[in-house]
Amino acid sequence: MSPATIATVNPATGETVRTFAAHGEAEIEQRLQLAASAFPKWRRVPVAERARLVGRLADLLDAEKERLGAMMTLEMGKPIKAAVEEAAKCATACRWYAENSERLLQPRVVLQGDDWGEVVHQPLGPVLAVMPWNFPFWQVVRFLAPALTVGNVGLLKHASNVPQCALAIEDLCTRAGYPEGVFQTLLVGSEAVSKLLDDPRVVAATLTGSEGAGRSVGAAAGKNLKKTVLELGGSDPFIVMPSADVDKAAKTAVIARTINNGQSCIAAKRFIVHEKIAEEFTRRFVDGMKALKVGDPADSATQLGPLASQRLADDLDEQVKKTVAKGGKLLLGGSKPDGRGAFYPATVIADPPKGSPGADEELFGPVAVIFRARDVDDAIRIANDSPFGLGAAAWTRDDAEAKRFGNELEAGTVFINGMVSSDPRFPFGGVKRSGYGRELAAEGLYEFTNTKTIRSGGGITLAE
Ligand code: NAP
Fold first, then answer.
1. Cβ of residue 38 lying under 6 Å from some atom of ligand 1
2. Does the beta carbon of 133 sit less than 6 angstroms from any atom of ligand 1?
3. Prediction pTM value
4. Residue 461's pLDDT is what?
5. β-pair type (183-185, 108-111)
6. Which atom of ligand 1 is nearest to the CA of 234?
7. What is the pLDDT of residues 392-420, one digit of tens each?
8. How many whole angstroms from 146 Cα to the centroid of ligand 1?
9. Is residue 185 classed as helix, strand or coil in its secondary structure?
């Protein structure tokens, strides 16, 4: 049973702004039928035309980024400047696929002449995308741009707290000119997902979200032998070695921890600092965290807004309290303020012991934990001593150390002297309990395809 209504609740005030009727069984059935009937026609549309439409989507995202940004801020509390930038980044990704898909989808000819052999990527069908609220446009666009351009059709089950964003994305696709049924939003709760995965018309699924959701979607899809991509949580290390520019590293660390009010899967979460510079880094970092301007996310000067819901603020507070109770040293913040809104202060905890949430779990909010490392081996050991493997950053001016970090950190993305970020030109995804599969770049285009080998004898040439 899906919830009867899905609501926009402003996390800065706790006020319910708007409610929507959730889709019932008849509506879901109608949308599934539409998706299934759209696919055979859509897959025959030439790649050049599909690429043109994703380019048109880019134009709309750019033109309407202020309106879309305000919608994100209202529904999940992202500071407005970052929200507008998110819409613009979506446009960049769409444009990347508009410009590169034809080239990337050319058949790869392996053998020529009498014994012809080529490899092609063909779409699979309707793909279900179960998406989170933290980047309500970006997470969806990085699925839809490659998946639709390769010829799949999309069904979006967005997070229940961002219904306006979910409907706006469907509307943008319609106005970009995508044929009916090629991209649809289902306004349903998470309870509806396993039934959707049982439906033979849904051929694959992608989920971006928590480990728990990953397990359920992976299990439901596995039972039906359906392909999945899982983009799950992270507890990214941010390593600082003595040769680094410590001031720059500390300033970047503040942004890397508090981006999106600390609710990013690739936010730096565990700061692993060489003992020689630990004191200096910690002082600069704590000062930077303390100086953040907290407030109304709709104010363009705000750097740290509320968490996306009161529940998230309560859960984070509990993780902080447990970490401190187990012996972590609280250097800043650490308790939920009174008053309305799901605000949580910038918080820093040093030396969280193993077995505490600060050491072992993802902290989804502006809470940083700092570990000391003796040397490069120790830094790599601490960084990899995590169930997650999404991103990692390391700061050093030593070539040999940089190479070791690049090679040995267990993560889908490693940045040296920078903070982890996603970019449509590079594949994105994780290892370990951060999930599997890749989004963005060529890998994202091929993820939901049948990589088909076609061999032909007797002088029949296939590729044009
Ligand atoms: P979440 O609670 O797992 O929700 C994500 C989506 O999954 C929502 O649409 C949610 O629907 C749905 N869902 C939740 N439980 C489900 C279940 N048992 N079966 C099927 N669907 C289910 O995650 P969140 O709190 O929104 O997002 C934060 C998490 O996402 C963090 O762990 C973060 O690190 C991760 N994340 C990962 C990436 C990445 O690329 N690796 C990117 C962003 C975020 P409802 O809203 O209706 O419950």
1. no
2. yes
3. 0.96
4. 75
5. unpaired
6. 34
7. 999 999 999 999 999 999 999 999 999 99
8. 21
9. strand
Assess contact for 133 and 308: CB atoms under 8 A: yes
Distance 232 CA to ligand 1 centre (A): 8
Atom from ligand 1 closest to the CA of residue 434: 41
Residue 231 annotated in active site: yes
The residue type found at 434 is: S
The number of angstroms, rounded, from the C-alpha of 24 to the middle of its chain's C-alpha atoms is 28
Q: Compute the distance between CA of residue 200 and CA of residue 181 in angstroms, rounded to an integer.
A: 17
Catalytic residue from among 94, 165, 173, 265: 265
The question of whether 265 is a catalytic residue gets the answer yes
pLDDT digits (tens, 9 = 90+) for 248-275: 999 999 999 999 999 999 999 999 999 9
If pLDDT is split at 50, 70 and 90, which confidence band does 460 have?
A: confident
Can you tell me the distance from the alpha carbon of 229 to that of 273, in angstroms, rounded to the nearest whole number?
Answer: 33
Under 8 Å between Cβ of 93 and 440: yes
Maximum pairwise Cα distance, the chain: 78
Residue 201 CA, ligand 1 centroid: distance in Å: 23
pLDDT digits (tens, 9 = 90+) for 152-165: 999 999 999 999 99
Contact 120, 454 (CB under 8 A): yes
C-beta of residue 56 within 8 angstroms of C-beta of residue 193:
no
Tell the residue number behind the tokens 């919830």, with chain if given: 3
Does the CA dihedral 97-98-99-105 come out positive or negative?
positive
> How far is the C-alpha of 452 from the C-alpha of 186, rounded, in Å?
31
Cβ–Cβ under 8 Å, residues 75 and 161: yes
Q: What are the distances in angstroms from CA 302 to CA 81, 126, 151, 313, 314?
A: 9, 40, 41, 18, 22
The full set of domains in the chain, from first to last, is 5-232+434-456 (3.40.605.10), 236-416 (3.40.309.10)
